[in-house]
Design a protein that fits this description.
By secondary structure, the chain is mainly α. About 85% of the residues lie in helices and about 0% in strands.
Length: about 500
């Protein structure tokens, strides 16, 4: 049997490997995402893109409700069967979960169409109409999430990476382009999304049947005691996931209610660019969740905290430099998507700051999820009214900038509260002093760029090159110098020259 230290090291390797693979997938996705945003900005325009942003937000928010927390909690019902290699029981758990999710999704789609008069009254004809076109996607989106979660339980990332990083973005780009030039210029993005989610479901289904055979489902019948157990366990997670997702989407709903589709489109473009920071955390989550789930089951919190602190440090090291660079180059970057979007620089800066805080500091939510699942929903219900009030007041006064500011303030308050609760409940601190390294390096990067701003225009080609070839090496060199000797040795071993040294 492996020692606790060996298990911890193996877990860290799995987390790093899985996160690296998932982030590599994000870079592949970026190859289609950037052209898609250019297509949406220059061809469809901010107004139509705003309708698309609202409709997708509507679908994804209600899909979180349909998934009912199983995207993360399903691991509890699969881990034991996977360890024992009992594939029929694992398949049984997944199928029961799919039944639950399909039932919830069907009810939500039905309620959407029955409640369409309310949608029109709240958001207007254009926004509500777009949401009604996309509503059927809730069914396939929800099932896709469960199918991919079941493959991640085996610590296999390739099916999720292909589905999310290849199938979805490239099909959306291709279909969006074809439909626009075919004359479908108002609903082109919406129809492309419907086709894309169908292809995504097909890809996830393929991955699922690479792990399970039809023999594993022979004699299947709904297991109502298991269904009750799954619902009872996942209930707090479902409430938390819905609250947390809605917390991240309140700004879009509020803007859609208080402003027009053009403002929503400009803000939505800033959200898409800010995804770079958010995806760093999301790159870790798919593999981090099953690993921490297993670690938490052992009651060895020191091991779990070590894994959490390591991941927080990794995330912060990447996020801080991206935040700094986008703060200085954000407005110029946004203008690439069309002149309408050049005013989104402040929105972008506030959004990425909030995402960085929630990414690096918010990892404590996973410990609460697996050790005290009822706590996370309580935190959400405390924070959500604060965010709703802030978002309404700031959005009604400052528009998109106000919505972005409310997100930043809310994330800071929420993560301070999470860390305080973890400290109180478990007498541990889920972070360590290594987080100061990227903060110090980021401070130096800000100083260099501020001095450069006084000497030449950062938005020129020369200014961009200065950022890439001066600031980035300086940033990572400082982190290296502040690292321990053992960490430096590991870094050197990863370099081509270092790997050959004896």
């Amino acid at each position: 049997m492996n020692s606790a230290a060996e298990v911890t090291q193996d877990n860290k390797k799995d987390i790093a490997k899985g996160a690296g693979a998932n982030f590599g997938g994000f870079l592949i996705r970026l190859g289609a995402r950037v052209p898609f945003l250019l297509l949406a900005g220059h061809l469809y325009g901010a107004g139509i893109f705003g309708q698309y942003v609202f409709a997708v937000t509507y679908v994804e928010t209600l899909s979180v409700l349909a998934v009912f927390g199983f995207k993360r909690s399903i691991f509890k019902f699969l881990n034991g069967h996977i360890r024992e290699r009992n594939m029929p029981e694992a398949a049984k758990a997944v199928l029961n979960c799919l039944m639950i999710v399909l039932g919830f999704a069907a009810l939500i789609v039905l309620a959407t169409y029955l409640g369409s008069p309310l949608l029109y009254r709240l958001f207007g004809v254009e926004m509500a109409g777009a949401a009604l076109i996309l509503a059927p996607a809730i069914l396939l989106y929800s099932l896709t999430e469960i199918l991919l979660a079941s493959t991640r339980a085996f610590r296999l990332m390739r099916y999720e990476i292909f589905t999310k990083s290849v199938m979805e973005p490239y099909s959306l780009l291709g279909l969006g382009t074809v439909l626009y030039f075919s004359g479908l210029r108002e609903q082109g993005l919406l129809v492309a999304y419907l086709f894309m989610i169908t292809l995504s479901f097909s890809s996830a289904l393929y991955g699922f049947f690479r792990l399970f055979s039809f023999a594993h489902f022979r004699g299947f019948a709904p297991d109502f005691p298991l269904i009750r157990s799954m619902l009872a366990f996942s209930g707090p997670t479902a409430i938390y996931d819905l609250g947390n997702f809605f917390l991240q989407r309140v700004d879009v709903f509020m803007l859609s209610w208080l402003t027009g589709s053009t403002t929503v489109g400009i803000y939505g473009m800033a959200l898409q660019v800010a995804t770079t920071v958010k995806k760093i955390r999301q790159s870790f989550d798919p593999i981090l969740e099953p690993v921490l789930s297993q670690s938490a089951e052992t009651d060895d919190l020191k091991k779990t905290v070590s894994e959490m602190a390591q991941v927080s440090y990794w995330m912060a090291s990447i996020q801080v430099i991206i935040v700094v660079m986008l703060f200085f180059y954000g407005s110029a970057l946004m203008s690439l998507f069309g002149s309408e979007f050049s005013a989104a620089g402040i929105m972008l800066s506030l959004i990425i700051l909030g995402d960085a805080v929630n990414g690096s500091l918010g990892i404590s939510e996973l410990l609460l999820l697996y050790k005290k699942p009822a706590v996370n929903p309580v935190i959400i219900f405390v924070i959500l009214p604060l965010h709703l009030g802030l978002c309404y007041l700031l959005t009604s006064r400052y528009g998109g900038e106000g919505a972005a500011l409310s997100i930043f303030i809310t994330y800071v308050v929420m993560n301070i509260l999470r860390i305080a609760i973890v400290r109180r409940l478990f007498e541990i601190f889920p972070l360590d002093a290594r987080l100061l390294r990227p903060l110090c390096a980021g401070g130096v990067a800000i100083l260099i760029l501020s001095m450069g701003e006084k000497s030449f225009a950062l938005n020129t080609i020369g200014g961009v090159l200065a950022g890439l070839f001066i600031v980035l090496p300086a940033y990572f060199s400082i982190i290296y110098l502040l690292s321990s000797s053992s960490e430096r040795s590991r870094i050197r071993s990863l370099l081509p020259a270092g790997g050959s040294r004896q």
